[in-house]
Structures are given as C-alpha cells and as structure tokens.
Amino acid sequence: MLIQPGTPAPDFQVQDSSGNFIKLQDYAGKWLLLSFLRNGACAMCNLRVHQLIQKFPKLQAKNLEIITVFESPSSSIDQYVGKQDAPFPIVPDPTAKL
To answer: CA 49, 78, 9, 59: dihedral to nearest 10 degrees?
Structure first.
C-alpha cells in the first residue's frame, strides 16, 4: 500500500523486540517518525539506528517520537540492533506486513 503525503497512516498494533505492545493510536496528536529499515544485519541500517539514538534526546525535546521497523525477525534484531540499546521501540516485521 502506498500512502500519499498528508494521508494518515493506517492504524496498527504490533509487538516490539522487547515484547511491548505498540499501538499507532497511542501516538495520536504527536509527531512520529516511522523508520522502515531493511535487515537487522545491514550495516547501513544499524548506522541509521545509531544516528537516531544519538539525535533522540534533541528530537524528543521537540516532541518527536520514533518507531523503527525492521524487515527481520526478533532474533536478528536482538543479535545486531539490540546491542545498541535504543531508547525507542524497534519492531520486527519479517514478513513486511507493516
């Protein structure tokens, strides 16, 4: 599904790599960056997560929240991305359903 600029994202509920449930509706009225990344073992994707972690305090101070979605299973996220201890949810989506 292609979403046009200015169109609200379809509501979803997923479980992040830590087991927490994430509902898009919980972010209603907030600025939210949905970052879709390719693979937990991808060096460039991990660099992007590292950059978001570094910028997160400033972004959060401006009321921006972040959810990252990886087209990888939890095991891959835990092995590669999870070591970075991100302060925002990382969602496994191995079937690219989101």
So the answer is: -30
Count other Cβ atoms within 10 Å, centred on residue 11.
Answer: 9
Radius of gyration in angstroms for the set of CA atoms belonging to the chain, rounded to a whole number? 13
4 class by beta-carbon count within 10 Å (0-12 exposed, 13-18 middle, 19+ buried): exposed
- How far is 88 from 31, CA to CA, in rounded Å? 14
Residue 92: what residue type?
A: P
In this predicted model, which residue has the larger pLDDT, 93 or 5? Answer: 93
Maximum distance among all alpha carbons in the chain? 36
pLDDT tens digit sequence for 31-41: 999 999 999 99
| Tokens at 12, concatenated | 């979803």
Determine the residue type at 43.
Answer: A
